[in-house]
Design a protein that fits this description.
20% strand, three-stranded mixed beta sheet, 12 strands, 14 helices, flat, six-stranded mixed beta sheet
Length: 363
């Protein structure tokens, strides 16, 4: 999973990146508008892997991973500043965005919009994504309308369908409705997928607070966003979390106990990300590898097999499934089969979080 970290200058975006990745990226940019891209990879904590590793003693254990891209922020709130250009491909490739919003007071760090107003900043950055998509749809409309005039009769039906989908998406964006909240048919969505629009991706708002300050919530901000727009949210003190992330595990736990902090920023953001994106993890086990695979909730077994290897979709026969808790209780697959905990499922079976699966494939 790839997540792009976005936000206004001086929102603490890179500090959040350091807190999540235990990184050391420079946060001292004088203008607050860094031009350097940062990439960090985080392994998703999953206690089940440790238990399964003890049972199977595999050569390697592979947790799910999240790549965080710290994307330089806009230099101003002029139309789509910072969203276009060389960073657009990074944003287009992301599965979701972490939108860092400043909610801390620090007179020594001037806010680019003068005052600290989290609600205004959420609206501004959501608007940035919308403006960027509008530019894409406007250019697409012009190209298609021009192409229709030159197209051969046989080409026009397909171009007409594409133009209608683009116009529909554009009208929604002009009304401030992100693509993910628009009512689109399956064929319209397929047409628009080629444009990799940014508002198609989920957004998780990260309120960057003072260490002991109040924690804002989206519900309290009375945002001027269209109905149906859903944002994930999490609160953390990026400065404190970045400092704790540099400590040893023992020191981290001790300081957190003293401060009354239950979980790290990394754990909190990952949990919120999985919830917002609707993701679960299934597991595979064996002497070579114990591994977690992140997939959308409700995914079918055949499609889930494709996350391991695309050829598995075509060669899928069936899935042998045992819930993690049952495998842990039984001790091994053979015992799970004896007790009836191991089930044979077809391609339409909806994979559940914690399913331990062995896919039978015709190669």
């Amino acid at each position: 999973m790839d997540i792009g970290i976005i936000g206004l200058p001086l929102s603490g975006k890179t500090t959040v990146f350091n807190a999540l990745t235990r990184g050391h990226a420079d946060t001292s940019g004088a203008s607050g508008s860094a031009t350097e891209m940062h990439l960090g990879v985080v392994k998703v904590p999953d206690p089940r892997l440790e238990v399964l590793s003890g049972m199977y003693n595999p050569r390697k254990v592979v947790p799910a991973e999240i790549k965080y891209w710290d994307v330089p922020g806009p230099e101003s709130l002029a139309k789509s500043q910072g969203i276009v250009g060389k960073y657009r491909n990074i944003l287009q490739g992301a599965d979701a965005f972490l939108l860092v919003v400043r909610a801390f007071d620090n007179p020594a760090v001037a806010h680019p919009l003068v005052s600290v107003e989290p609600g205004r900043d959420v609206e501004a950055m959501v608007g940035e994504l919308t403006f960027a998509d509008l530019e894409v749809m406007e250019r697409a409309t012009e190209r298609l309308e021009d192409g229709m005039m030159k197209a051969k009769p046989a080409e026009r039906p397909a171009m007409t369908r594409q133009l209608e989908a683009v116009r529909k998406a554009r009208e929604g964006l002009e009304a401030g409705v992100p693509l993910r909240s628009q009512s689109l048919t399956e064929s319209e969505s397929a047409i628009l997928d080629i444009y990799q629009l940014l508002t198609q991706k989920p957004v998780i708002v990260v309120f960057n607070t003072d260490e002991d300050g109040e924690e804002p919530s989206l519900a309290e901000l009375d945002l001027a966003l269209p109905a149906g727009v859903k944002l994930g949210e999490v609160c953390l003190s990026a400065k404190l979390e970045a400092e704790l992330a540099l400590m040893s595990e023992e020191e981290d736990e001790e300081f957190r106990a003293d401060l009354g902090l239950d979980e790290s920023a990394m754990t909190k953001v990952i949990r919120t990300s999985y919830s917002t994106l609707g993701l679960i993890s299934f597991l595979t086990v064996g002497p070579d590898e114990v591994r977690a695979w992140s997939v959308p909730e409700g995914i079918g077994a055949q499609e889930a097999a494709g996350t391991i290897h695309t050829d598995f979709v075509r060669g899928f026969i069936r899935a042998e499934v045992i819930p993690y808790e049952d495998l842990r209780r039984c001790g091994n697959i053979a015992q799970g089969r004896k007790e009836g905990a191991l089930r044979s499922e077809g391609k339409a079976y909806q994979v559940r979080d914690g399913d331990v699966i062995n896919f039978l494939i015709n190669v």
